[in-house]
Amino acid sequence: MSLSDRLKALIQYPLPHHLLSKLMFWATRCRWRPFKNTFMRFIIKRFNVDMSIAADQNLDNYQHFNEFFTRPLKPDARPIAAEADAIACPVDGTISQLGPIEDGRVYQAKGHDYSLKTLLGGLDHLQERFAGGQFATIYLSPRDYHRIHMPLTGKLSETVYVPGRLFSVSPATTRAIPGLFARNERMVSIFETEHGPVAVILVGAIFVAGIETVWSGNYGEQTFRPFEHFIGKNLPQISLEKGEEMGRFNMGSTVVLLFGPGHMNWNKNLQANQTVKMGQPIGSTCPTS
Catalytic amino acids? Predict the structure, then answer.
């Protein structure tokens, strides 16, 4: 961790994270053409966004910046791993870290890890389901496609919304702020699959104007939303196929994937700091007995 990392982290502590994110929420939904088109062109140029794969490349057709930011891609832009045992990458992004969950801790960066139980909203039964399993943390930059898709076919069984801070989740902040992903706002979605439980955790960040799921809508519309836990009959009866959209970020952030113990293996060539694309195989399931 460099001095620059420390300074970038320190200046974030006193910031009014939720107020800034609410202002960004409004700004990204401004429909005034000169503003929203200028904003889009700036992001495209600054982050080298590839618009050739967008389903609609005409900026005038996007009602506001957020509609552009969560733009769909052409149908053939992200083929989904077809092998029956393949685990599909849920997002475009960069692997921050991946590996085993050991002693109830998830590795964040050199010198930092955090509690699996805290990440999962403090629920003992969820900690027990994923203890000894595998995790992957994937960071989405502003240039990436911002819809989240299913790594495996599964049925939604439980959700936990955990309110929290909205620190940046950039690589510099990840190296500097202890327990970052267990401190920030997050939406934990548990799916039951043929290969055990899978958790898809959407982590909020500063200027992220809302975590969104296909069954509950946009969590960014309510500031200071309270802790929420839904299970079983209190949830929509929803099953999603591998590669099907399950949510989106209305600005960039991070996804943490969890798998139960003994159910999967990461591809041997997958490593930290590697760029990945939604749909590509990132691991394989273990044969069921």
Answer: 92, 149, 253
Domain count, the chain: 2
- Pair 148, 90: CB distance under 8 Å: yes
Contacts 24+ apart (CB under 8 A), 51-58: 53/77
Question: Which neighbouring-strand residues pair with 139?
Answer: 94, 254
Distance, CA of 288 to CA of 237 (rounded, Å): 25
CA nearest neighbour of 222 among 25, 7, 65: 25
Residue linked to tokens 């300074």: 7
pLDDT(44) > 60: yes
Instruction: Tell me: do 54 and 103 sit in the same domain.
Output: no
| Alpha carbon separation from 179 to 101, 113, 116, 129 (Å, rounded) | 15, 6, 10, 21
107 and 249 part of one domain: yes
Domain that holds residue 272: 86-285
In 3D, which of 181, 146, 138, 173 has the Cα closest to residue 43?
146
Task: Give the pLDDT mean for 187-207.
Answer: 94
Q: Which pLDDT band, with edges at 50, 70 and 90, does 207 fall under?
A: confident
Instruction: Give me the amino acid identity at 236.
Output: P
